[in-house]
C-alpha cells in the first residue's frame, strides 16, 4: 500500500483497535490459479507474535483453502467517503482545489496456516461468535445449538490463523489540508450525515500549514 508519511499510522495499539472495530476483512492470497480473495470476519489475538495473530475460518469448498503461494494479505477498511471541494475555504479564496476521497485502511501480512483440529476450529467459531454477540442484551452462544448440528457445521469449514509479520495503516483524513479546509471538511461531512467521517477528520493528526501535499 502506498502510504505518504503524512497519512501513515504506525501505532500498533491504534492499528489493533481499528482491526477490532472494523473486523470484516478482505483476505487475499495466491493459489495455483492466481490471486483469490475472500470477504470474512477476522479476530485479533494481540499477544501472539510481534504484531498479533489473526484467526478465522473458510468454507471447506472455498478454493482459497488450497496451499497458498507466499504471504497472505488481510485488508481492513474503515470509514471512507467522497470529499467535495465545496467543503474547503480554499474554494472560496482561490478555487485551486480538486475532489478527493478520504479513508482508513489497515493491511496485515503474514503466513497463512490452516487448522483442521475440530476442537481448535470450534474454539475459533466460539471466539468469533462471542466477540460479535457481546453487545447484545441476550447473547446467542454456539452451545445454544444442538451439539450434533454444530459438529456437522464444523465439518464444512477450515480454520486458519495468520501471525502478522508486518502491518501498515493509512489514515487519509485531510491531514494535508490547511486548518480552514479541515474545519470545513469536518463540518461538511457532519452536515451530510457522515459523523463517523467527521470524527475521523477531527482526530487524525494535525494538518499541514497550507496546500496539498503529494
Domain module count: 1
Euclidean distance between termini CA atoms: 15 Å
Number of strands: 7
Helix content: 25-40%
- Reading the helices and strands in chain order gives HEEEEEHEHHEHH
**CATH architecture type:** Roll
The class by helix and strand makeup works out as alpha+beta
Overall spatial form: elongated
Instruction: State the CATH class.
Output: Mainly Beta
What number is the mean pLDDT?
93
Tally of helical segments: 6
Q: Tell me about the biggest sheet? A: 7 strands, antiparallel
CATH structural fold name:
Pnp Oxidase, Chain A
Strand order of the largest sheet: 2-1-5-6-7-4-3
Cα radius of gyration in angstroms:
21 Å
Residue stretches low in confidence (pLDDT < 50, at least 5 long) are 206-214
For the record, what is the CATH homologous superfamily label? Electron Transport, Fmn-binding Protein, Chain A
Subunit organisation of the chains: single chain
Percentage beta strand: 25-35%
Structural summary, described in words:
- The protein has helices at 12-22, 89-93, 118-133, 147-154, 179-191, 195-203; strands at residues 24-31, 34-41, 43-45, 53-59, 72-83, 100-115, 157-172.
- With 214 residues, the protein is an alpha+beta fold.
- It has a single domain, classed as Pnp Oxidase, Chain A (Roll), CATH 2.30.110.
- The chain has a seven-stranded antiparallel β-sheet with strand order 2-1-5-6-7-4-3.
- Helix 5 (179-191) runs antiparallel to helix 6.
- The protein is elongated.
- The chain starts with 11 loop residues before the first helix and ends in an 11-residue tail after the last helix.
- 25% of the residues are buried.
- The model is unreliable at 206-214 (pLDDT under 50).
Amino acid at each position: 500500500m502506498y502510504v505518504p508519511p503524512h497519512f501513515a499510522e504506525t501505532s500498533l495499539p491504534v492499528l489493533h483497535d481499528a482491526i477490532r472495530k472494523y473486523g470484516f476483512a478482505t483476505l487475499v492470497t495466491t493459489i495455483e490459479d492466481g490471486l483469490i480473495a475472500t470477504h470474512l470476519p477476522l479476530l485479533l489475538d494481540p499477544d501472539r507474535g510481534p504484531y498479533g495473530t489473526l484467526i478465522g475460518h473458510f468454507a471447506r469448498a472455498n478454493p482459497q483453502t488450497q496451499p497458498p503461494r507466499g504471504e497472505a494479505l488481510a485488508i481492513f477498511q474503515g470509514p471512507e467517503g467522497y470529499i467535495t471541494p465545496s467543503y474547503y475555504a480554499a474554494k472560496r479564496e482561490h478555487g485551486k482545489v480538486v475532489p478527493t476521497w478520504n479513508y482508513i485502511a489497515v493491511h496485515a501480512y503474514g503466513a497463512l496456516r490452516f487448522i483442521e483440529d475440530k476442537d481448535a476450529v470450534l474454539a475459533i467459531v466460539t471466539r468469533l461468535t462471542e466477540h460479535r454477540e457481546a453487545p447484545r442484551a441476550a447473547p446467542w452462544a454456539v452451545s445454544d445449538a444442538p451439539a450434533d448440528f454444530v459438529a456437522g457445521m464444523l465439518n464444512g469449514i477450515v480454520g486458519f490463523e495468520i501471525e502478522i509479520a508486518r502491518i501498515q495503516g493509512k489514515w487519509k483524513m485531510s491531514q494535508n489540508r490547511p486548518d480552514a479546509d479541515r474545519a470545513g471538511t469536518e463540518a461538511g461531512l457532519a452536515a451530510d450525515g457522515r459523523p463517523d467521517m467527521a470524527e475521523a477528520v477531527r482526530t487524525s493528526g494535525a494538518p499541514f500549514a497550507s496546500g496539498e501535499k503529494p
